[in-house]
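Think of the structure tokens as a kind of shorthand, similar to the way a musician reads notation: each symbol stands for something richer, in this case the local conformation of the backbone. In the example below we present two proteins back to back. Begin with the first one, reading the sequence and then the tokens, and try to describe in your own words what changes along the chain.
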Amino acid sequence: MRDFTPIRSALISVYDKTGLEPLVAELNKQQVSIYSTGGTLSFIQAMGVPVIPVESITNFPEILGGRVKTLHPGVFGGILYQRGLDRDEQSIQSHNINPIDLVIVDLYPFEETLKNTSAHQEIIEKIDIGGVSLLRAAAKNYHDVIVVSSKSQYENLARQLKTQAGQTTLEQRQRYAQAAFERTSAYDQAIAGYFRNLNDVPEGISLRYGENPHQKATFKGNISAVFDKLAGKELSYNNLLDVDAAVRLVSDFNPNKTIFAIIKHNNACGIAEGISSANAYERALEADPVSAFGGVLICNQTIDLEAANLMHSLFFEIIIAPDFQPEALNLLMEKKNRIILKQKAFTNPNESVRSILNGVLVQDFDQKIVQASDLDVKTNRAPSGQEIEDLLFANTLVKHTKSNAIALVKKNQLLASGTGQTSRVDALRQAIEKAKSFGFNLNGAVMASDAFFPFPDCVEIAFQSGIGSVIQPGGSVKDQLSIDFCDKHGMAMVFTGYRHFKH
């Protein structure tokens, strides 16, 4: 059994080319013959490095849209043949098979695709076949072949080749083989998990009724993949709509911050950031303690006993959190009908489907989360640091509020929102009146609008109420009127470039 083994030939087929260039350059410097496929071939050619198409080995072109390109005895024979074994030496000579000493493969991003889309066919197309087979073949023959299964290994291998004159040790090849098998194992588990979830979806769960008692309703999905139901009665149609709204809203906020929201009829009647789950709950409840009655509560952090004590006296339908302290759970379970959901890590579907007329409408979910870098300051006065925080908070909230929508925020706390109005002015007036009715001072608050202002009337009303900063998409032919008013009265206004209608 050999220890140091030179690399004379390499097969490179990667999806993500990040960090590949220095390794290819080192292989070229070591005079390694490089074989490659498709986009990787073009990438290496663009570097000016000699590269041989895999088709020259297989004498067969890529077929089926690239689904089949390396699955050929000419490729796998070169990887799997055992150097020095008479039988294998005779086989490769009689079939004119070229040895392959190094295999570099970056698999199709199945896990990433699963996070970014729910489109079944797109997910299926990201199941790598040839790449996994190449990794397993090279790892199996680690005595003679070295296998690279992750871009995180490129730099290390390049350094080893440079210091070891283009050779690798048996121990190194064994470690790379182990990593390759770990990668293919995790990859297969992700694929199996996806199919498991498909097969676990029931035909439908009959609900007590739909939006109203005279309507029948069914949930077609796998709720247990999203939540562990710890206590309470069965979820209803309206419960599920509110739960979905709650989960989507909170998932758009920074998971490292403590966010608490109270949902009623798919809109947030309260949401705030706090220093603890208890503090965040108190701040969320302040926005509208009346509407909170019978609502859905959600927090992105563990519910502790202090928070449970505070909310226990409130009548609410559902509480959602990633975890509950045992004492908090015991207290919350005292109300037998109260639904307690422990949220699991899961990926929201990317597509929305709605039945209309004699068909369905399908669209991507609005997944844009505006960042500080997206803000385009349009006024002479730029918003302060706290105002920027509040503007981003309000903009994320207004995205999840029924249009026409306005959200008023101060110190990462919803003061009030105007929801589902046919006029943006009406939405603003509704929000202002509601905030004042619960005793909030709007001086220094910010305003978010889900769409542009066709006239300056909204910023005029906002200024008269003490609101100092505004976030909106922009895009009206009369944007300048609103900008001019803000400049004249010392207000700050930023544009995002993204409208967030929610019908």
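Once you have a description of the first chain, move to the second and do the same.
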Amino acid sequence: MLYLLSFYLPRFLNHSFEEKLTTVIHELWHISPNFDGDLRRLPGRCYAHGSSEKEYHENMKAMAAKWLSLGPPEDVHRFLRTNFKQLQASHGGVFGARISTPRLIPADHRAA
């Protein structure tokens, strides 16, 4: 497993649809373009969000709006239109697992 995204429930599901979608895009954008287990690194010492986390978030909001304008299938993002109580009602309960932050283990590329 190279990446793990986690969202705090019920807080995440009680945001607006737009905020939830922006959060998902925000987290996915951190994934390295090389998909090698590392993070996307932006220039400067604040490599995760760049020089302004607010500007980063605004860019993610614009990216989410653009993605929606392309008309993705509703079933891909339908779950973001529900809140926590609706999710519980439709599935009879919500169960989660607390997962420790994974440790980075250098891959031995010679073994492949």
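Compare your description with these statements about the second chain. The radius of gyration is 17 Å.
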